[in-house]
Specification:
The chain is an alpha/beta fold. It folds into two domains: 262 residues, Rossmann fold (3-Layer(aba) Sandwich); 89 residues, 434 Repressor (Amino-terminal Domain) (Orthogonal Bundle), CATH 1.10.260. Helix content is 34%, strand content 17%. The protein has twelve helices and nine strands. The chain has a nine-stranded mixed β-sheet with strand order 1-2-3-5-4-6-7-8-9, with helices on both faces. Strand 8, helix 11 and strand 9 form a beta-alpha-beta unit. Helix 3 crosses helix 4 and helix 6 crosses helix 8. The longest helix is centred in the last third of the chain and has 20 residues. The chain is globular and about 60 Å long. This is Lipase family protein. It comes from Nocardia aurea.
């Protein structure tokens, strides 16, 4: 069978991460009887010095994977002591370039590893100072299906449902906004597009998504033969998508020995390991041949997780920002998606930053994102530059 990287024989079974030993991450036996977003377990967590005056609660809830099957997912809720009942709730989708449980946001918050940090803590403290509560979902799911963007959107929406249902947090009628950048922006943007059909009952006032990879097909094609400094992220996405779609995208049977070694090394890897293994590489280095994208099922998986090809549109205001010369993602696919949203009547504010590359654009967008979100929670009419 020809898959993402071409035909092969070895390593056909997906390589899943080592399960987290903490039972709060495990699915209960009766999960199929639960509704999407239903709270399965809560755990008060130790306070965090990075978020002073803020209570931390880990929530396990029922969500749905890409095949429509029930899964258990988790989200960390930050609730400032000065919040008001039913005050604003921001679901922030953190960048999770990862394939293993130790890279989950809920784990990173308490990790002593200096390479694992919530670098957005300053911006999140600005949000908490406003009295907003914050949900930080582990949006890659229990198998860390990096690249499975639709899954991330569903987990994000179910995490919001769960946050509002946790007893004692007084979020039952909270207005909701969503935000995220890069991989977190992908989960945010998909949540916004899926909400009208997946979670129509949620009172979402707006979504801010930056640096969104809206076309995975184009991203794969860009590193077909040309070496790329961030190829590890493409390799990780292929591994993650194989986990979520093992019958349709079995990359293991298409990897050469070097590719199988890389998959083994990355099976539980976080950002630094992923980037190191793939730095300066291309598909040619890890594939058994170069029959890239010749299989309809493989291509369909990529398209199903590419927002540019999804026919749904948000029914909420959207703020979108990116670098006009971003070397990691196809900017014209972002522009095409924005144009489709505008044509559908979405109140879209799309901005480009002065940054020439991907990550600094995230930082430059923060002041505008906070101002835009603040205005949505105040009920101001959303701007549009369509």
């Amino acid at each position: 069978m020809i898959s993402l990287f071409g035909p092969g024989s070895a390593g056909a079974v997906p390589l899943y991460p080592t399960p987290d030993p903490d039972p709060i991450y495990a699915a209960p036996a009766d999960i199929a009887e639960k509704s999407p977003g239903e709270v399965l377990e809560t755990r008060p967590m130790p306070p965090l010095a990075m978020f002073p005056g803020t209570a931390v609660t880990l929530v396990k809830f029922r969500s749905t994977n890409s095949q429509g099957l029930p899964i258990a997912a988790t989200s960390t809720l930050l609730t400032p002591q000065w919040r008001v009942p039913d005050g604003p709730l921001l679901s922030y989708q953190h960048i999770i370039n990862a394939l293993g449980p130790r890279c989950a946001v809920s784990r990173v918050l308490y990790s002593p590893d200096p390479n694992l940090q919530v670098r957005e803590a300053v911006a999140l403290n600005a949000v908490l100072a406003r009295g907003w509560s914050v949900a930080l979902p582990d949006h890659l799911g229990p198998t860390f299906a990096y690249g499975a963007a639709r899954l991330g959107g569903q987990i994000t929406l179910d995490g919001i449902r769960a946050a509002r249902a946790v007893p004692g947090l007084n979020l039952h009628r909270s207005p909701i906004a969503m935000a995220g950048y890069s991989g977190g922006g992908m989960a945010t943007a998909w949540a916004a597009a899926l909400a009208p059909t997946y979670a129509p009952e949620l009172d979402i006032v707006g979504a801010a998504a930056g640096g969104v990879p809206t076309n995975l097909v184009r991203m794969i094609e860009a590193v077909n033969t040309a070496p790329h400094p961030a190829f590890g992220l493409i390799m990780a996405a292929a591994i993650g998508l194989e986990r979520e779609y093992p019958d349709r995208l079995p990359i293991g049977e298409s990897l050469n020995p070097r590719g199988l070694w890389a998959r083994d090394v990355l099976a539980n890897g976080c950002t630094n390991e992923i980037l190191a293994v793939g730095a300066g590489k291309s598909v040619m280095d890890f594939a058994s041949n170069m029959s890239l994208m010749t299989n309809r099922d493989a291509r369909a998986v990529l398209e199903e997780n590419s927002l540019e090809f999804f026919d749904g549109v948000p029914r909420i205001p959207v703020y979108e920002w990116h670098s006009a010369s971003d070397p990691l993602i196809p900017v014209d696919s972002i522009v095409a998606t924005n144009r489709r949203y505008c044509d559908a009547g979405v109140r879209l504010q799309a901005d480009t930053t002065i940054s020439p590359e991907h990550m600094s654009a995230a930082v430059l967008g923060v002041p505008f994102v906070l101002g835009w979100l603040d205005a949505r929670f105040r009920g101001e009419p959303a701007p549009s530059n369509c």
